[in-house]
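Batch job 17 of 40 flagged for manual review because the log was empty.
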Amino acid sequence: MTAFAGNAEGQGLQNGTGVDALFQLPSAVAVDLDGNVYVADTGNNAIRKITPAGVVSLVAGGSQGTAEGAGAAAQFSSPTGITVDDNGVVYVADTNNNRVRKIQNGQTSLLVGAGTGGQTLSAPYSVTADRFGNVFIADTNNFRILKVPAGGSTAAVFAGSGNSGSADGDGTSAQFTVPASVTTDFAGSVYVADIFSLRKITADGVVSTPQITMADENEALIVSQLRITTDRHGDGSVLYASDSETDRIYILRRDDDTGNYTASRLAGSTTGYLEGAGTAAQFNDPLQLYVTSGGTLYVPDYNNNVIRRAN
């Protein structure tokens, strides 16, 4: 696990290459088909881009507010979720503005929220796009998952009753407690890191609760602090999870007979900042990670202000 961009010894809104760039509390990353990494730079109210060579630039934002526009003319308020579809369109969970924003051809516009897109959001923490171009939103404080169809501009409830709970079922008969992270697989299934549990929603909207068992019975995975990712062109048999409570990264492998997962630690040990392999690495609040179809894992190391990478 190495530093890809950012510097653990400082924070700010500074472009540059690798450790010469500065971030402030980055909380989510996503990667486009060309290998560019997009970052929800939460503390800077900005969206940043890192090229495969590690060159960091500003895509949008940099000040707090709700303004639309091109580049730095746009404003955000603590964006904590980000995704890029296969056409290069960027979607941002603009959490404190209770909106999801769309960045296309350099222009930021409102997709859902504030009376637009058919829904009123409450603290959306995560957003993801499947390989078909559908966009899914973790409408966290409304306890539901929304779907915006590919090419559309109106969200509908995909799963969740709107009341807090933990019930499996079809569509709006299901309940979530605090859905904070969403990711999708090749078949269009959506995986949700819900507080205290991992949830799966099929493409038809059927919600279930796969169980997670630790490979090492002496180690605890803090499910309530998870952020999850999987390759949207894969089958969902392998998930990656960051546990911000223990500052560790896990790999979850599915038993196809039961649909349940076994988790093994991939990286991390104690709170801090160290490069290295496996348990030699240290993180400080790793949040919404992203894995590419080639298996490269990117982790926003929130309190270290660094984007980390592992192949």
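Reviewer: the log was empty due to a logging misconfiguration, but the result itself is present. The mean pLDDT is 96. Unflagging and moving on to job 18.
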